[in-house]
Model the fold of this input.
Amino acid sequence: MPTKKTIRTRFAPSPTGYLHIGGLRTALYAYLYAKKNGGTFILRIEDTDQERYVEGAVDMICRTLKEAGLNYDEGPDVGGKYGPYVQSERKAEYLKYAKDLVKKGGAYYCFCDSDRLDKMRKDGATKYDKQCLSLSVAEVTKRIKNGEPYVIRQNIPTEGETRYTDLLFGEIVVDCKELEDGVLIKSDGMPTYNFANVIDDYLMGINCVIRGTEYLSSTPKYNLMYDGLGWERPEYIHLQPIMRDAQNKLSKRHGDACFEDFIAKGYLKDAIVNYIALLGWSPKDNREKMTMQEMLDIFGVDGLSKSNSIFDIAKMRWLNALYIKELSADNFYKLMKPHYAKLKYLKGYDLKYLSTLIQGRIELPSEVDSLVGFINEWQDFDKELFVNQKQKTDRELATKILPDILKVVKASTMDTLYENLSALAGKLEIKVGAIFWIFRIAITGSLVTPGGATEMAKLLGKERVVERLTMLNAQFSVLN
Ligand code: GLU
Done:
C-alpha cells in the first residue's frame, strides 16, 4: 500500500460510450486537485457491468483525456505500480477482501434465492431482512461445500448513524436504517460496482475521491466497508451535475454533445476545457479565460459550487472566439480548411487571405458561410442597401457614381484601389465614406462583411469586381 504522503486522485469512468462533458469535468477537477498538490492522477476503468460495455470506449476515454491535456500518471495504457487499471482484469482480488470483511463482521454470506427475495419485495419489504446473517459458520461452510449458490452482502448496522465530511458539502449524516445490506459479491463470484470501487480505491492508494453527487448517498456504505476492513477512509469531494436546463441533466443519452462532438464542430480543445472548468468552479478573481497552467495555479475546493451549473453554449462560443483569435495564422487556416472545403462557392478564392479577414470575427468555423455567403448570393441583392443616412448615400447616388468607380477599379491594382477611390471622392466632392459604402455594397450586396470595401475587393479579385460593377451599371442603365 502506498502511504498517504501525496494526494492521489482518480477518474473512474465506466466504458459505456463517449466521454460526456460531466465526466470530463470530473476528470479535470480530479486532475487539477492532484497536480495542484503535487500529487498523482489515475485513470481506472470500471467495467464490472459487462452488459453496458461498449467496444472501443476505453480507447476513446484514454484518447479524449490526453487530447484535453489531462495526462494521467497511471492508467490502463500507461501502466503504473498499482495496476491493472481495468476492473475486469482485477477479478481475482475482490473475493479475498470480501471474505476478510465477512471475518471481521462487516459482511455475510447469503443463500436466499430470487423467489424469496421477490416474495419479500411483493410483501412490501424495501430492503433485505438479514435472514442469512444468523446462519452459523458451520452451516455456511456446509452449504458452500454443497455447491449452493450464494452472494456476499454488506452487514450494515441496524442502528445508529454514520457520518463523514465532504470537502464541499460539509458533514453528511445518514441513519443506518436507511442503508441496505447490498450485494458485494454476486453469485458468479464477481464484485458489484459498489464493492470493486472501494477495494480499488484502497489498493490504488486513492486518498481523495472526486465524483458526482449521485454518489453522495452511497458513500456512507463505502465508508462502512473501509471501517470494517480497518482501512483509513479517503477524503471526498462530490460535484453537482451539469444541467442542460433547469430541469434536465446534460447527458449524451439525450443527444447532448460530448467532447468529440464539440471538436468536430470546430471548438478548440483549450476553449472546451476552459469552459468546462467554469461549470461548477469559479476562481476568486472571477477570471474566465484561463490556460491549464493558470487553472493549476488558482484551483481550489473553496471555489467549487454547491449548486448545479447550466451549460451555456453562447458562453462557450464566446470563449472559443477568444481562443481562435490567439491562433497563429497557419493554425487558424488549418482549423478552417475542412470548413472551407464544404463551401463549393469558395473554390478559387484566396483562402489564406480570407482567413486573415475572419479570424478576429468568428466564434465557430461553421459560421464562415454566414460571413462570406455574399460571394455566392450577390445576384439580385436589395438595392435599398445603398441607403446610408450618415454617409448620405442612396440608390440614385450609387447609379450616378458607379461608372466612375468602375473606371477607377479598371485603372488600379487591388493595392492602389484605396488611394485611387479616395482621390475619386475628392474629385466628385463627396465623402470618402460615401464612396466606400457604395463600392462595398455594390460588390458584396451585403450590409455586414468581414472587412472593409477594399478588403472585400481584394478577396473577390479584380476580375470579379469589374464583372460585378459592369453588371450593376448595365442593370441601372436599363432601369433608368
Ligand atoms: N464508474 C463510476 C461512474 O462512471 C464512477 C464512480 C466513482 O467515481 O466512484 O459513474
In short: The mean pLDDT is 94. Residues 12-14, 46, 197, 211, 215 surround glutamic acid (CB under 6 Å). DSSP finds 20 helices and eleven strands in the chain. Residues 462-479 form the longest helix (18 residues).
